[in-house]
Amino acid sequence: MDALSMNAVHLTINNRKILSNLSMNVPQGDAVTIMGPNGAGKTTLLKVALGLVKPTSGELYFFGKKGLSKESQKLLGYIPQNLGLVNELSVYSNVMMGALRRMPRWRSITGMYPKDLVDDTYSLMYDLKISHLKDIKIKKLSGGEKQRVAIARTLIQKPLIILADEMTASLDFKAAVTVMEIFSEIKKKMKITLLMTHHNPDIARLYSDNVLIMMNGRIEKNIPANEITADTIGGLYEP
Amino acid sequence: MNPSRFQYTWIAILLIIIGSSVHLGFNPLSIIDDADNSAVILGELLEFDFSVWDKVLFSLIETLEMALIGSSIGFVLSIPAALLAARNISPSYVSVIFRSLLGLLWSMPPLLWAILLVVVVGLGPTAGIFAISLYIMGLSGKYLYEIYESQNVSAYDAMHVLGATRMQIAKFVTIPEALPHMGNQYLFLLSYSVRESSILGLVGAGGIGFYIIHHLESLNYGKAAPFILAILAVTLGMDYASTRLRKRLVHN
Questions:
Q1: d(Cα B154, Cα A138) in Å, to the nearest integer?
Q2: Which of B154, B165, B173 sits opposite A105 (nearest CB)?
Q3: Range A167-195 average pLDDT
Q4: Which of A17, A189, B65, B110 could make a disulfide contact with B135, Cβ separation 3.0–4.6 Å?
Q5: pLDDT of amino acid B136
């Protein structure tokens, strides 16, 4: 079964076609990478899937069910470009923020978090090797540490699908691999489907099952990740 | 903008300034023509009469208290008002209402608010405190909603995907991200309020301004001088202290 699929999705903003007859599918449990030049529509595609941008036309399916219902929204985790962390809050608060759907509103406002969520938060921070940073503000962390906080914040939701937008863009290759290793291990353990965008063919090959090549608002190719090299996608980034 | 258009703009501005001066009968040389008068007044001001020191101290403390209470009330009220005015947090109709309210509070100077409030609550510092509070609420609110609206969009996107309510977004993103600016802003507003409080006495709304206007109108320039000197010293002192504290806040 596909965790996520899109059928003939169009999006036009100010007479400009952002997504054009876009169709794609992400099989459950797989890791799929979208690659393509800047402006191809990768971020917009993710935002459409998340319900942040409404498509002009087309259909979305989550686990075979049509449309983005409140129930299917609960299954989605999102790691935005720039991570979307709150710089002035601690690592603990940022991770706990991810669990908003798992607690009554009054608890989130008063800060009286349920014990099971507190335990989950500590456990995830331990798995992602950020426990020692618990009380440190985000603005004082390195790029790699921030990535791990963003992952923890997403995982505490217990999502079935994670959409990650250029998650490792600000990291060097070694740091990106470290983050992706930890993430992949947890992904397998929690049986999560992953749809991510980035520009690095080595990361795509190592950590995805398939790579979708996107250009001019549509998916042009679907390539098995083990066939991806800098040469096979070289043409993508040439003017 | 090409150079000729740029030059035309400046020429137009210059012509408007000259036209306005002619319209008002403003003559910059009059300060020199009346130099004798100025010298006499300045001479009398410099004959400081410190027999009024107890009143200087009392009115100075009153002015500082008015500024502290007024700016604190205005600042605290501006935080939720700015949340309701920010377009990225509130529904558009709520945002329009609160933007207009803050605009109204901010567009009237504290002295005008004080004139109105003296009529409502009577003479004395209470009118002054209300005047400062209302103006600071408008000024601070306007500044804050602009800060809220310029915050990191991706943090808001992440919160929307998490299904966060407006109140949760305000608690987890908007307020925490604005906190360093708020500390900075509060110190600036406090020092600004001290300056404003010092003139509210002119209309009977409390503070040191009452004594300054009283002695100036009685032509007791020597007695007015210690009050002017005191307000000058406190304003400069507050400015210096708040600049240093703000630098420390930014550094942290």
A1: 15
A2: B165
A3: 85
A4: B110
A5: 96
pLDDT of residue A32 exceeding 90: yes
Q: Return the CATH number at A41.
A: 3.40.50.300
Q: What is the pLDDT of residues A85-99, one digit of tens each?
A: 999 999 999 999 999
Read off the tokens for A18: 């952002």
Closest CA to A186 of A83, A103, A77, A112: A77
A112: in domain: no
* A104-A108-A110-A112 Cα dihedral, nearest 10 degrees: 80
Spans of all domains in chain B: 62-251
CA distance A163 to chain B (A): 11
pLDDT at A237 over 70: no
B163 CB neighbours in chain A (<8 A) are 70, 73-74, 100-101
Beta bridge partners of A212: A34, A222
* pLDDT of A153: 93
Query: Minimal Cα–Cα distance from B136 to chain A, Å?
Result: 25
Which residue range forms the structural domain that includes residue A15?
A: 1-75+196-239
Query: Percentage of residues in chain A with pLDDT exceeding 70?
Result: 97
Least Cα separation, residue A38 to chain B (angstroms): 18
Is A83 in Cβ contact with B161 (below 8 Å)?
Answer: no
For domain B62-251, the CATH class is mainly alpha
Considering the domain boundaries, does residue A62 fall inside one? Answer: yes
Ranges of chain B whose pLDDT falls below 50? none
**What are the tokens at B208?**
């040191």
CA gyration radius, chain B: 23
Query: Out of A47, A84, A101, whose CB is closest to B163?
Result: A101
The pLDDT value recorded for residue A180 is: 87
Please indicate, yes or no, if residue A160 is contained in any of the structural domains.
no
ipTM of this complex: 0.84
A135: confidence class by pLDDT, cuts 50, 70, 90: very high
The more confident residue out of B217 and A9 is: A9
Domain count, chain A: 1
Element (H, E) at A71: helix A70-73
B2: contact with A, CB 8 A cutoff: no
CA dist., res. A198 & res. A169, Å (int): 7
Subunit contact A101:B154, Cβ cutoff 8 A = no
Edge-to-edge order in the sheet of strand A76-79: A76-79, A161-165, A193-197, A31-35, A210-215, A218-224
Whether residue B161 and residue A73 make contact (CB cut-off 8 A), yes or no, is yes
Residue of B nearest to A82 (CA): B154
A125, part of any domain: no
**A238, pLDDT greater than 60:** no
